[in-house]
Amino acid sequence: MLKKGKSAALFEIGGGFEHWAERRLRYLMLAPAVVILLALTIFPSLYMFYAAVHRISPNPELPWQFVGTANFARLFSDGQFHVALRNTAVFTIIAVSLEFALGLGLALLLDKYIRRLTFLKTVLMIPMMLPPIAVAITWKLIYEPQFGVLNEIMYRLGLPTQAWAGDVDLAMLSIIVADVWQWTPFIFLLMLAGLASLPVEPYEAAELDGASSWRQFWDLTIPFLKPVIAIALLLRVMDALRLFDLVFILTGGGPADRTKVLSLYIYQVAYRFADPGYAAAISLFVLFVTLILSTWFMKRMRLVE
Amino acid sequence: MLRKLCLALAVTASTLAMGASAWADITILVPSGSEGDGLRAAAADYAKLKGTKVEIVQAPYANVFEQGANAGATKSGVFDIILMDDPWIPFFAENGHLEELTTYFKNAGLEGPDDDFLSKSRAICRNPYNEGPYVCLPYVGNAQMFFYDAAKFKEVGVESPETWDDVLKAAKALTEQGGGRYFGYVFRGGQGNPVVADFMPIFWSYGADMFDEGRTKVTIDTPEGAEAMKMFMALRDVSPKGVESYNANEVGTAMAAGTAASSINWPNWVATFEDPSQSRMVGKISYSPIPDGTEPGSSEIGHWTMGIMSAAKNKQEAFDFMLWATSPEQIKISAERGNPPVRRSVFTDPEMTKQEKFRHYPVLMEAIEASTPRPRHPKWPEIENAFGIELSKAVAGTIKPEEALKNSQAAVEQISGLK
Predict the structure, then answer these.
(1) Residue of B nearest to A251 (CA)
(2) What ipTM goes with this model?
(3) Is A61 on the interface with B (CB under 8 A)?
(4) Which of B291, B303, B241, B297 lies closest to B262, judged by CA?
(5) Which residue segment(s) compose the domain that A153 sits in?
(6) Would the CB atoms of A168 and B397 count as touching at under 8 Å?
(7) Which residues constitute the signal peptide according to the record (chain B) (predicted)?
């Protein structure tokens, strides 16, 4: 009897634990992900805020010095930061616009006229699948002034050869072309998926009403695609603001600072000039600008109320 | 059962991963390329000989500085030795990342590196330069030399270029004859380190310098600086299109392919120029010290030096390895592996000098002995960046050369805090 009672108590304890575990199972299952998120995202972000208000010496014997908003104030007087900001803006506007125009154009073309050519669609997506470093090195070889294929073609056509990435007037354009080559397929892919999901009925009605193709494009296709366009542009703008690989490999920010972008400058300040406090302040500025732009953009495209 | 097995595997893998970084007695951070490869080979020999476990961590040039600075700032002790480019020495030494070697030498019964090391090779390893205590030992004896195609220079009436005026005269004629496919001169015009590295020897050859002797004043924007800049711009005008983005590879390739007649370059390119599988110019390139300007020419020294990190876990073992690796026998082996030596006995060893691939040794030894270090300042990377931007603008023609000097003066004054 005693034995029976003891095992019953144990069962109750076990049952209690099982019940406890069952009630909290969702939290237990989420815990590893939350811990990883805290360690890899939340903590570094908070640490960045902390670093941004300190002057951090590369000498480990010197304590971190609290400087308040001094690192942010420095943004207003730092000429190199202004150059990087301007170059990033120019790159983002031109590159993303070209990628959007070409990506949408290609998607319309393939959707309407060559729908069955899946092979062609796959080929068009290859640049997007390549690692950015491989793309940068490939374009570096293409642009090489003395031995590059581009100048060889120019020479054979009797046209003047160019320094491309080494020319102050062509360096940014060279980077934009390489970026457009790699990321147009991304826009193309999203637009193609968007076009494939469009309803047929409104187009049939428009046809019956005698609407031209152009009218159908502006009044039906674009409004229907609006959410896809918004997402595609948003992702590309956010990515363009973080451009690093192409610039690092192709030009190193030169010539004459013409291609220095924010990510490259942050890298230089943090690692070459050993000033992580100021680098954190610039990074926060970029984060802030990205957030503002994204929110404004999503509201404008009516993705959020 | 399966779950238990997975758990056991995970624990074993984690333990192994954590232990992996601690298996070595000495961990050395080295750059990619011949310098790092040489030390890697030496470390393998040392491990076989002494039974010491030596781990080599190899990274691209810029990353060696970053990883070293990070390890120093965090006192991680992950590296015992760092193979440093000499302009980094003030940064590492003055920020407390490097161990002073005085006590180690004393314990080994030595006063310092012996006299067989070239005097400039020893001077570079003291901080401040040539005066302070030793903070590293020289390993690779890099100093710039002037490389030129003697036959081409002779064709246009310059037997051997003694001065920058001689170089310009020959380069101008050769570029004019080249029709846009051959050039008399080529240099590293890429923004930052490349353009600064190829400008400094010309700067010094005209009596200019970045700081005054006691590092109390910035002296870039001076009449001597202007003279040097004038010559640099004249040389730019006879260089290939796109030189604004050139780094060592582009310059080396142009010389090896025979599309440029002359350049300043580092001695490790000799191996490439003399290798038939990589060069069309085997046996055709001559080497000389840096030409004179208004003052005797001076090479930029670019030694690779070994220092012990302050937070190193095995400092004595690290020092023992450094002494062994820089012994005459090991420096000779290192030279055979393609790294320029730092010892007089190796430079003058008949076994070496009789070999065609080492015919540049007398010139290189002369170049090292007449070399100048890059301005020794703990903020050198930032100074070099600022100076490199202005030089790049001048090379690209977006600002006038005199503006570049004025802007550089202001930028370096601001960074260094010297007015």
Answers:
(1) B245
(2) 0.84
(3) yes
(4) B291
(5) 79-300
(6) yes
(7) 1-24
